[in-house]
Amino acid sequence: MPELMIPLDSSLTKPLYEQIYDYIRMNIADGKISHGEKLPSTRFLSAHLQVSRSTVAVAYDQLLSEGYIESAPCRGYYASDISGLYLGEEAASAALPPPIPAERYRIVFSPDENEFSCFPYAAWRKISRDILSQDDASLLTAGETAGEWELREAICRYLYRARGVSCRPGQIVIGAGNEYLLLLLAQVLGPGKRVAMENPTYLKAYRTLSNMGYRMLTFPAGKNGIEAEQLQQTDAEIVYTMPSHQFPMGTVMPLKQRLKLLQWAAAKTGRYIIEDDHDSEFRYKGKPIPSLQGSDTHGTVIYIGTFSKSISPAIRVSYMVLPKPQIAAYQKSCGFYASTVPKEQQRVLAAFLNDGYFERYLNKMRRIYKAKHDSFLALLKKEAWVKHIYGDYAGVHLLVELGAAMDAREVVRQAKKQGIRIYALEEYLAPGAKANRPDVGKTLLLGYGALQEAQMKEGIACIRRIVTGTA
Amino acid sequence: MPELMIPLDSSLTKPLYEQIYDYIRMNIADGKISHGEKLPSTRFLSAHLQVSRSTVAVAYDQLLSEGYIESAPCRGYYASDISGLYLGEEAASAALPPPIPAERYRIVFSPDENEFSCFPYAAWRKISRDILSQDDASLLTAGETAGEWELREAICRYLYRARGVSCRPGQIVIGAGNEYLLLLLAQVLGPGKRVAMENPTYLKAYRTLSNMGYRMLTFPAGKNGIEAEQLQQTDAEIVYTMPSHQFPMGTVMPLKQRLKLLQWAAAKTGRYIIEDDHDSEFRYKGKPIPSLQGSDTHGTVIYIGTFSKSISPAIRVSYMVLPKPQIAAYQKSCGFYASTVPKEQQRVLAAFLNDGYFERYLNKMRRIYKAKHDSFLALLKKEAWVKHIYGDYAGVHLLVELGAAMDAREVVRQAKKQGIRIYALEEYLAPGAKANRPDVGKTLLLGYGALQEAQMKEGIACIRRIVTGTA
Hints:
The structure is a homodimer.
Chain A: H1 16-29, H2 42-49, H3 53-65, E1 69-72, E2 76-79, E3 107-108, H4 121-132, H5 136-140, H6 149-163, E4 172-175, H7 178-189, E5 194-199, H8 203-211, E6 215-220, H9 228-232, E7 238-241, H10 255-266, E8 272-276, E9 301-306, E10 318-321, H11 327-334, H12 343-354, H13 357-381, E11 386-390, E12 397-402, H14 408-417, E13 420-421, E14 423-424, E15 443-447, H15 453-467
Parallel strand pairs in A: 3-13, 5-6, 5-7, 7-8, 8-9
Antiparallel strand pairs in A: 1-2, 4-10, 9-10, 11-12, 12-15, 14-15
Helix pairs in contact in A: 1-3, 2-3, 4-12, 6-12, 7-8, 7-11, 13-15
C-alpha cells in the first residue's frame, strides 16, 4: 500500500478533497502508484490525514469515475491500469496531424501567402493592448450576432470609399472566413439552387456550395469571365463570379458584360450574383475597378470581401454585404447564429481601420507587391520557355503558359522533387469538369506575394532546367 | 471654382496623388465643394500645385471612379451630388441593427449569461500580451485547418481529466461555436439524415441541423432524456442528446439508458450519437458524470464541447471530437476549410489551459454558481406559488412549475412590462412540435448565473405579484 503522505493545505482555495484527488491521480499517472496496488481505505486515510471521511470519499469517487482507481466489493480500492487510457502526448499516429510544414519546400510560389514584413505590428499590438485593457466585462459579454456594429460601420465606410460598394452597416455580416459566409448564404437563399461558376475557379467556394447541396454548373473561364449569354442557356439561378479579378485566371470583366450580368439577374425573381471581391485591393495599372455591387439597383448582388489577402488569413475576418431584400431572410434563417469572430478581434480590427492604419498599410503593400510583380514579370519575360504570360498587373500571382511540349503537372511534379512548389493551373479546375481550352494543361500558376527576388530567380532557374531537360 | 489650396507634403509616405484625392474628397464630403461646382482642370491644378499633370489625373480618375466627381466632355470636371451615395453614419433605419441592449430589462433571468467578476482578466491579458509580443510573422501566417495543435492537445488533456473523454488531439476540430461545428458535421455525415432530439431542447442545434436539410424528429423530454426504445420505433439515424445535463430540462441520463443508447448506435452502420456536453462543468451534487463518449467502443459518438459556458460566449471557441472512423470523411469534405478561430486566440486559450488558469477558474466558478444556486433554490422554496422545482444542482438555471392557473407565457409577458425578463419553458419547444406533458406550459425557466441575490429577490417578488394577482 502506498504511503500517501499527502501534503494538504487548508489555506488553499483548492478544496481538500481535490488536493487528495490530485495527489493520487498524479501518482498513478506517473507510475508512482502502480497498476493493481491497493489504496488505503477511506477510514484509514481520513484518520491519517486528519480530514473527514466524506472528504476522502469524494476524492475516491472522482478517481473511480475517471477510471484511475477501481473498487472491489469488500476488498477496497486498487489503482487501475491506465496505460491504455490516456492518449494525449504520445499520440504519434494522430489522426488529424498538423499540416506538413511549408519548410519542406525551399521555395513556395503560393498564390495565398502574403508578405508580412511591413505589417504595422507595433500599431496592431498597441490597439490590442488598448482594447484588452478596456473595461473587463464588455470583453466577455456576448457580441452582436451579425458582427460588432463599430466594425460594420468601419467596413461600410471603407467599401464605399475603396470599392464603390453602396450599403449600410446593417447590410453587413461579419464572419470567420469566406467559406463560413457561404455556408450562411446557402441557408439564406435556400436549398437546391443551381450555381454557375467560371472554371478554373476558387475551389473552396465551389466545394462549399457543392457541400451545401447546390448543383454546380461550370463554364470555361473565357477572356472576360462568365457571360450573361452563357447563363441564358442554362437553368442557373445564381452566378458566383469575381468580376474585378477572377481567380485564378486574372481576368477583369468589362463594364458592358457586367451590366448584362446585372440585367440577367434582374430579369427573373430568385436570381442572384455572388460577387467575390477577394483581392481587388491589389491592382497596379489603370483605374480602380469599382464593384459590381455598386451598379446593382435591383438588390441582386451579394458582395463578399475578406481581410485574408489585405491583412492575413490568420485573422479570419470576412464580410458579406446582403441586398436589402435578403435581410429578412437572413434574420429568419441565420439570425440566431452568434458571430464567429471574437468580439475582441472585431474591436481591434475596427480601430485598425478607423485610425487609418489599414489604408496606409494597403497603400504600402500595393507598392511592395507592384515592385515584386514588376521584377517577377521582367524575369519571366526573359525566359525562352515562356510562351505567354497573363493575369498580370493585379493580385499576387501570374499565369505562365509553357512553350515546351511538357505538361504543367509534370513540371510541378519535378519541381517538387527539387524542393520548389509551383502550381499547375489544372489544380484549380472544378472536380469532374474539363476546361475546354487546350492551354490550361500547359499553364503554370506562380504566386510571388511572399517571395524575394533571389527566390524568384532560383525558382525560375529550376523551372527552366526542367522544361529544357537540363535538370 | 474652389481654390483648392491643397497642402501637399512630399515627405509623407502617402503619395501626392492621394493627398490631392483625399483633400478633394473630404471637401466634397463636407460640402465645402458643393454639388455642381466646377473643379480646376488637371493642367491648371498641376501648375498651381507644382506637380506633374499625371499626378492630378490619377487623383481625378480615382474621384471619378468613386463617384465624387463627374466629367462633362470638353467642359471639365464637376463635383457630384453625393447626398444619396454615402449611407454610413446616418443609417438611422439600418437593416441589421445592433440587438436591443439588455439594459432594456432591469433584471434578466437568462440561462446564457455568465458571471464574469472573477475572471482572471490580469492573467488573460498577460498571456495575450506574451502571445502578441512573440515573433511577428507567426501571428499572421495561416494556422492549422482543424485548429492549432497546441490547443487541441490542451483540450485533449482537459477532456480526459475532467470528462473521461478518450481521444487523441488529432480527433479534435476547433471551431467558432457549436453551430459552426454542426454545420461542418452535417457535411461530414452527409445530406438528408434523420435526427432525433429531445423536446424542449437547445433550439440553435435544432435550427442548424434543420437548416442543413436534416429531418428532425422530436421526442417529449422524459424524466431521463431520450431512450433507445423510442428510437427503435423510428427511422432516426442520428440522435442529438445532452446526457450529462439536458438543456433546458436539466435531466441526467442514467447509466443503463446510456449504454442502451450506445448499443442502439452500434447496432446499425451509419447511426451516430451527437453528445452535446455544454455545461457539465457546473455540477453541485453527486459524482461527476463522465461523458458518453468515454464509454463508446464503436466510434459512434461525436462529442461537442464549448468554452462559451465555462469562459464566455465572446471568445467563440468550441470543439468537436470525431470518432476515428469519421476522420477520413472529415478530411475529404471539410479538410479544406480554414479554422474559424484566429490563431492568436487559440494560442492564448492553449496557454490559459496549460498554465492551469482554466481549471482554477472553473473550480472558483463552480463554488460561485453553487452559492448562487443554493440561495436561489432556498428563495424559491419559500414561495407558495411554486408547485415544483426541477433541473437543480447543475448548470445555471432552474425550472419552476407554477401552482397557479396562469400560463407561464402570460407571466413572462407581464414580467416584461415590469422590466424583468423571465422565460417560459415553452420557448424552448421545437417549432411545430408539441410537448405532450401538460406541465410544460406551466413552467418557468429562470437563469441565475449572472444575478446577485438582491436581483433574485426582486425578480421573485415580481413573479409572486403577477401570479397572485397583486401586481
